[in-house]
Recover the amino acids of this structure.
């Protein structure tokens, strides 16, 4: 399961993720990290059974968690099922079904945004939520 | 030997006994029955393609305003249309970009908005004449308000197309979509088994006057398309149809990030099966159609072939290049190509569409020539200074500073003992090293990853590289990494100024 970890500049230098791994023993994966002066946005992938434990450990350390429920949205009216987006996706979110319709497994999405700019017809959108 | 006429087939359409299949269904029929029997049983094979076709556009007639204007320049939603014809005729091309929104919106989007019935803002200017006194015109209208909106596309329905990948270390933004660095993805175009021209590569039934499915209505092939190259199986068609009757499902404006706009056009062509040769031709499969994967990192017209590939392999979603599995993306919609071939099949079955034979055949031998260029393109060697100053890597910053002052070059290529390029140092690097009080070793202050030029490459390509990497000079090296010159943005500026003054 993936979630977006939001870290404010005050705590960005702390080894939050390492501490969380040691505390929970979870085999988590950092899928993408975008660190800016305004804060850090890090996509974490964690086994389903460790999700609550890991997020609690991070929240305890002052980080904010955004579950990636609907990380990318396809507008079916605009999508022409060309599939241009398929080959730029680094995590294999997008594929064709048997009818050559573009389908997405959004649980794999890390919100890198490559598919958004590849789509010739503006059918895809990354959904950014505010940290809770 | 089965020999049918178009009249036989059209009689069967009229009496409801016609047998129509799509080009996807035909290969199985021919392999089961053989071409002779298949030609007896099947009357028409429908094809389809739905892809980005930049060489598309629409002739518009606005009717006359009062007082009248000879539109000399014209914009539709800020996209300029061609007006070098009579007063209120104009051609809007799919790839023309908006003067205000750039690549986000172009002629293709204007055409999609027209088909969707949306209002379009018109702005026209003129110098004014005795017969057309008006100098300025602004109005808003929809497709209903136009006298004509006739789609006339000079080059559509490529028989097949070359695929694209990118072996360089930077992302390329092309009309083949975004090409990720180090051959991370492959893009391709065309509908393979359903491709109209791949199903009639001898142009026996597709020619001038052939009635076709054009974006949801009946249109016509008006002749060979521009750059028609049937010998290399890159045939193209020129087509025409009434935009007012088109279906917005099959007319879509597109933006290829970093390249510009294009128009998705839907074309379906029925192939009357007059004899066993046509049955055999329409039995073509994805596995029979071969194309090449080109390396777009080479910024020349002729690009190196990474490998040849069939549409069957492309459609599998993964292609092996040098032992790596690379994901593929179509840019054409096979889903919609199939929808078009199926819709056309239904039209024929229901007696709404009667195929025609061409009034004149299209050449199957024409060759597409490259451009005749009368002015030699200057090479790097033509503009680079022959006098060069390099510095040995074991010298210190102070030596470099002196050398820059003496030589008047602000960039010094740094070379090893055996004169091979190992770095570059600029006046700026020296200033930074001094400011940080780290001014001993040249090696610590220089840039080690040097962007270089080749003496025999066209200067336009070298200039592109300077811009890409945001640098002001590149050492020119030979194949042994020996510095033979240095080329700077100043050299380019001078050359560009000379070109302009000519």
């Amino acid at each position: 399961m993936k979630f977006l970890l939001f870290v404010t500049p005050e705590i960005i230098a702390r080894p939050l993720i390492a501490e969380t791994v040691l505390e929970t023993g979870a085999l988590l994966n950092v899928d993408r990290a975008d660190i800016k002066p305004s804060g850090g946005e890090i996509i974490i992938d964690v086994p389903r059974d460790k999700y609550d434990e890991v997020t609690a450990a991070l929240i305890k350390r002052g980080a904010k968690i955004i579950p990636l429920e609907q990380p990318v949205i396809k507008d079916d009216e605009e999508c022409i099922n060309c599939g241009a987006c398929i080959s730029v996706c680094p995590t294999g979110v997008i594929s064709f079904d048997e009818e050559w319709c573009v389908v997405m497994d959004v649980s794999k999405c890390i919100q890198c945004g490559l598919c958004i700019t590849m789509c010739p017809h503006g059918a895809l959108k990354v959904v950014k939520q505010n940290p809770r | 030997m089965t020999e049918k006429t178009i009249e036989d087939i059209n009689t069967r359409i009229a009496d409801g006994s016609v047998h129509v299949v799509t080009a996807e269904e035909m290969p199985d029929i021919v392999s089961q029955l053989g071409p002779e029997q298949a030609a007896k049983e099947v009357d028409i094979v429908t094809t389809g393609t739905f892809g980005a076709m930049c060489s598309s556009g629409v002739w518009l007639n606005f009717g006359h305003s009062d007082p009248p204007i000879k539109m000399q320049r014209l914009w539709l939603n800020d996209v300029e249309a061609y007006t070098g014809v009579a007063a209120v005729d104009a051609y809007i091309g799919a790839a023309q970009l908006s003067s205000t929104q750039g690549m986000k919106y172009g002629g293709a989007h204007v055409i999609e908005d027209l088909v969707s019935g949306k209002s379009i803002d018109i702005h026209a200017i003129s110098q004014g004449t005795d017969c057309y006194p008006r100098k300025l015109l602004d109005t808003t209208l929809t497709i209903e308000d136009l006298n004509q909106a006739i789609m006339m596309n000079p080059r559509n329905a490529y028989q097949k197309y070359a695929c694209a990948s990118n072996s360089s270390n930077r992302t390329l933004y092309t009309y083949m979509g975004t090409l990720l660095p180090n051959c991370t993805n492959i893009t391709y175009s065309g509908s393979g088994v359903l491709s109209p021209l791949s199903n009639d590569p001898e142009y026996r039934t597709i020619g001038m006057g052939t009635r076709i499915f054009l974006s949801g209505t009946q249109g016509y092939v008006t002749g060979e398309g521009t750059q028609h190259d049937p010998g290399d199986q890159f045939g193209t068609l020129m087509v025409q149809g009434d935009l007012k009757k088109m279906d917005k499902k099959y007319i879509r404006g597109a933006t290829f990030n970093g390249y510009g706009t294009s128009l998705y056009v839907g074309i379906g062509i029925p192939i009357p099966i007059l004899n066993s040769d046509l049955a055999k031709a329409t039995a073509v499969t994805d596995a029979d159609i071969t194309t090449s994967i080109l390396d777009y990192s080479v910024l020349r017209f002729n690009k190196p072939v990474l490998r040849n590939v069939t549409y069957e392999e492309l459609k599998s979603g993964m292609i092996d290049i040098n032992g790596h599995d690379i994901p593929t993306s179509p840019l054409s919609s096979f889903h919609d190509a199939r929808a078009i071939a199926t819709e056309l099949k239904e039209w024929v079955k229901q007696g709404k569409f009667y195929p025609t034979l061409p009034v004149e055949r299209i050449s199957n031998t024409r060759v597409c020539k490259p451009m005749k260029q009368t002015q030699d393109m200057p090479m790097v060697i033509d503009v680079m200074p022959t006098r060069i100053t390099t510095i040995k890597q074991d010298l210190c910053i102070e030596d470099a500073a002196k050398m820059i002052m003496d030589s008047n070059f602000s960039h010094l290529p740094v070379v090893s003992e055996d004169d091979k390029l190992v770095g570059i140092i600029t006046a700026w690097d020296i200033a930074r090293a001094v400011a940080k009080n780290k001014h001993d070793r040249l090696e610590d202050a220089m840039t080690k990853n040097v962007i270089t030029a080749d003496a025999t490459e066209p200067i336009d390509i070298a200039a592109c590289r300077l811009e890409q990497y945001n640098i002001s000079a590149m050492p020119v090296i030979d194949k042994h990494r020996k510095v033979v010159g240095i080329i700077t943005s100043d050299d380019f500026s001078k050359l560009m100024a000379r070109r302009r003054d000519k």
In short: Chain B has three domains: 6-53+152-361, 63-146, 380-501.
